[in-house]
Design a protein that fits this description.
The protein is an alpha/beta fold and 314 residues long. The chain contains 15 helices and 5 strands. The radius of gyration is 23 Å and the shape is globular. The N terminus is likely disordered.
């Protein structure tokens, strides 16, 4: 396979969808948006769902339909994760939202603000955003994009058409990667392709990035530990000395436990264990995943999983 590391063009941008029909696995949403285009009355939009499934691509493609080649002059993109406080709302978004627009009979009398990672905004910032939406709706449409719906305040939803984007299935990811492989005229084995799909966890953008940056160690690039199966062998053999060595090497090599949770799940599900034991271990892994999301110590939580398995596995 050719070395793509020197390729300066990001493939996830190079192969970003051009038309609404290019958006993968979101047929109901695309059909709804096409109906909106017919009416030419765009509401405020909420797009939510996992990362890398086409939320930002959809609104950009929609803007191209509405404004044509001049779409870039009718939209403004902001990322809330860069400044999750109220300043981004007052100093940046409000400033753009209240700007008047040049009346053009060929275009609607409003512009679009795209706010990504909105679930990182504080509650105060969200309430300030709500007031701006109410105040400037006549000249500005908002598209708010996020992953976690539970972190958005209720009053915002009443002003938006809400669309939930579902994960992209493996078949669609496979087909998109094969399309890119053909276009780039590279050779990728089916084994590697399936590996990329597996560790991308339904995130098409991640899968494309892994494909572009492929080298002989795809696990290292993705952050997945390549020899995690060895750990389970040590656990089954109650080999505590090698377990401690494994954990120390794991963290010394810079790996993160958070990225291994899916591997743990898959491995436990395929182990030859009684169902009740599997269930207990999976519950512990879920607890650990929740703890890690709250910023708890990875080493302690790794040990929690391992020692629980040492206790319950005969």
């Amino acid at each position: 396979m050719m070395n793509t590391l020197t390729n300066t063009i990001n493939w996830s941008e190079k192969y970003r969808p051009i038309t609404l029909d290019d958006i993968c696995n979101q047929d109901n949403i695309i059909n709804s948006l096409k109906n909106i285009l017919i009416t030419k009355n765009l509401p405020h939009l909420i797009f939510y769902g996992p990362s890398g499934i086409g939320k930002t691509s959809t609104i950009l493609t929609l803007a191209k339909y509405i404004f044509g080649d001049d779409y870039i002059n009718h939209i403004a993109e902001f990322n809330a994760s860069e400044d999750r406080g109220i300043n981004i709302i007052r100093d940046k978004i409000k400033l753009y939202a209240k700007q008047s627009i040049n009346i053009n009979k060929n275009f609607p009398p409003w512009k679009i603000i795209i706010l990504d990672d909105a679930d990182t905004l504080t509650q105060d910032a969200q309430y300030a955003l709500r007031r701006i939406i109410e105040q400037y709706s006549n000249i500005t449409r908002f598209c708010i994009i996020f992953n976690n719906i539970n972190k958005i305040i209720g009053p915002i939803f009443s002003r938006f058409a809400v669309y939930r984007f579902k994960p992209i299935n493996n078949t669609n990811i496979y087909n998109r990667l094969k399309y890119i492989i053909d276009k780039e005229q590279i050779t990728v084995s089916e084994t590697l392709l399936n590996k990329i799909i597996s560790i991308s966890d339904n995130d098409l953008r991640k899968a494309i990035n892994l494909l572009q940056n492929y080298n002989s160690n795809i696990d290292f690039l993705s952050g997945y530990y390549p020899d995690i199966n060895i750990l389970f062998t040590y656990i089954l053999n109650k080999d505590t000395n090698n377990i401690h060595t494994f954990i120390n090497n794991f963290f010394n090599d810079g790996y993160s436990l958070s990225l291994q949770i899916k591997l743990f799940f898959d491995y436990i599900l395929n182990m030859d264990l009684e169902c009740n034991i599997k269930g207990q271990i999976l519950n512990i892994i879920i607890e650990v995943d929740q703890s890690l999301n709250k910023g708890c110590d990875e080493y302690i939580n790794f040990m929690k999983i391992i020692y629980f398995m040492l206790i319950v596995i005969p």
